[in-house]
Amino acid sequence: MNLIRHKVLDLIRSEILSCTFQPGEELREADLADRYDVSKSPVREALQYLKFEGLVETEPRRGHRVTPISVSDAHDILDMREALELAATRKIAKDASDETLKGFDAWREADVSDIRAFASYNRAFHIVIAEASGNRRLLREVRRLLDAYERLCLVSLERLRDDQGDMREALSDHCVLIDSLQARDARAAARISERHLRRSRRQIIKGLENRPIVD
What we know:
Elements: H1 3-17, E1 26-27, H2 29-36, H3 40-53, E2 56-59, E3 63-66, H4 71-95, H5 98-103, H6 115-132, H7 136-156, H8 165-182, H9 186-208
Helix pairs in contact: 1-3, 2-3, 4-6, 4-7, 4-9, 6-7, 7-9, 8-9
């Protein structure tokens, strides 16, 4: 895939994950080519690749659309996150360097007044946690899951945009998790991470209820 195709792929993927292109929205090759000032060829190739990633689906006689979000898929994503991130926190508490643990202090503050800003912070924080585990395969899978999770957040939390309590609660969980990791308390870190992820699950599923763009 050449540079233009890579660029188009990254642009479409980014706009899907940020919900600029909403779940279920039709994606016309001609419109996308005009949007990015390219020919249809790199757009078509990008859409096929995104179909492989599960972000785009093809409808008979209608073309492509952004894959809708389903509650069952949300549960699958959240199950995988819980399994991988619990493993990461246990490993970090036991094996991470003192310097790595000290570096987590940079993640004790975040903007809780803006959903998109907080979603970006949240994704970055959990990637830092996965990186600190030292397990490259785990990191790769967590990155992929967090791409899908961020889209869930942006769709579900739109209903809660006037309530900053959930974001403050999540930030508080992060700070307590950092405390337990810096204390090298693997059991407490896993317990806090599990509580955090399960609370997140309840909030996400609640936010997805009765959404017209959710299958």
